[in-house]
UniProtKB/TrEMBL annotation:
The chain crosses the membrane at residues 6-28, 65-84, 90-111. It comes from Flagellimonas allohymeniacidonis. Keywords: Membrane, Transmembrane, Transmembrane helix. The lineage of its organism: Bacteria, Pseudomonadati, Bacteroidota, Flavobacteriia, Flavobacteriales. Pfam families: DUF2721. This is DUF2721 domain-containing protein.
Length: 129
């Protein structure tokens, strides 16, 4: 495949939007943690402990999602530079690595969504009881 500047450039808006979505998820979880912290200080409830454990895992996953997306973004920029200086073999290799990091980020996002759904299930179960 012939790699030109427009191919890695196509990833820029996709990765940027992905990072915005990840940041929104992070901010939502941060607000929830602050709310749960206040509740936990008032009552050390067992369901709150499970939610806190879930949030701790989710924060770690989101951190890795963001890191993977940023690495993908950086490698796409490096790819465009390598194409510019006509190091096409290296550009192809770096672009492939960039795509791998983007896929890792998306898989982590899927895992985080699953954990988020599970956490909501815990809250619904508590409300039913």
């Amino acid at each position: 495949m012939q790699l030109n500047l427009s191919i890695p450039a196509l990833l820029f808006p996709a990765i940027s939007l992905t990072m915005l979505a990840y940041n929104a998820r992070y901010l939502a979880i941060a607000a929830l943690i602050r709310q749960l912290h206040k509740q936990f200080n008032e009552t050390a409830d067992s369901p709150l402990k499970r939610q806190i454990d879930s949030l701790r895992k989710r924060l770690g996953i989101i951190k890795n999602m963001q890191a993977s997306a940023i690495i993908s973004f950086l490698l796409s920029a490096i790819t465009m530079f390598l194409i510019y200086v006509e190091l096409n073999v290296w550009a192809n290799i770096i672009f492939g690595i960039s795509l791998v990091f983007l896929m890792i980020s998306l898989v982590l996002s899927l895992i985080e969504v699953q954990l988020s759904t599970k956490a909501l299930g815990i809250q619904l179960k508590n409300m039913e009881e």
